[in-house]
Amino acid sequence: MAASWACRGFRAYVGLVAFGILNCFAFSADNKKCDQLLNGQFICLEPVINDSTQEPVDCYNNTAQVDCIPAPNITCIDSQGILRQFDGETMAFQKSIICRNTSGYRYTVAVALSLFLGWLGADRFYLGYPALGLLKFCTIGFCGIGSLIDFVLIVTQVVGPSDGSSYIIDYYGARLTRLVITNETYRVPHTEL
C-alpha cells in the first residue's frame, strides 16, 4: 500500500515537473525575437527599386534590407529589444534579400548587338572582351557559326560582362538563375508508375 502511494506521489511529481517544463517552453516561444518568426507569421514589404540599376536601393555585397511586419496579434521582441504585440501595420525588423551587383551593362543592348552586329563582334566589344570582338570582326563572326553560338550564350546569360557583374535586367523581368549541382546535391530517385 505504501509503495502504491509512493508511486502515485512520484507520478504527481513527474507531472508537475513536465508541466513546468512545458510552461517554460511556451513562455520562451511567446517571447522570441521577431526575426525568428516562421513564414506566414510576417510579411516583408517590396524593396524600393533604383531606376538606373533595376536593383533594390542600398544593395551592397549582393544583399539589401527590406522592412518586415508581423501578422496581427503576434507578440515578439522587435529590433529595439521591446516585447510588444503587433497590429499588422507596424514594422518590427529588417530581413536580408539577395540582389545583384550591376555595373552598367544592359541585357537588352547585349542581345540586340549580338543579334544584329554579332558578326562584327560588337557584342563582345560591348561586354568588355576586345580580343574576342576583334577576332569575330576579322573572321566575320567565325563565318556566322560563332555569331550564332555567341547569341545563344548571351540570351541564356551564360556570357556576361567581363568585370563579373550582372546584366541590368528589369527587376520583375526574365532573370535566369544558374543552379549548381555538386556531390552534396540530393537527388530524388524516379519511381515506376
From TrEMBL:
Question: Which PANTHER family does the protein's record reference?
Answer: BETA-AMYLOID BINDING PROTEIN-RELATED, TM2 DOMAIN-CONTAINING PROTEIN 1
Q: Which UniProt keywords apply?
A: Glycoprotein, Membrane, Signal, Transmembrane, Transmembrane helix
Keyword Ion transport carried by entry: no
Q: What is its main location?
A: membrane
InterPro entries cross-referenced by the UniProt entry: TM2, TM2D1-3-like
- Domain of life, per UniProt, equals Eukaryota
Q: Which organism is it from?
A: Eptatretus burgeri
> Could you state one GO cellular component term attached to this entry?
membrane
Provide the protein's localization: Membrane
The transmembrane residues are 12-29, 104-122, 134-155
Q: What is this protein called?
A: TM2 domain containing 1
Keyword Transmembrane helix listed? The answer is yes
Domain annotation TM2: ranges = 104-152
* Family statement: Belongs to the TM2 family.
Tell me what topology the record assigns in the membrane: Multi-pass membrane protein
A Pfam family for this UniProt protein? Answer: TM2
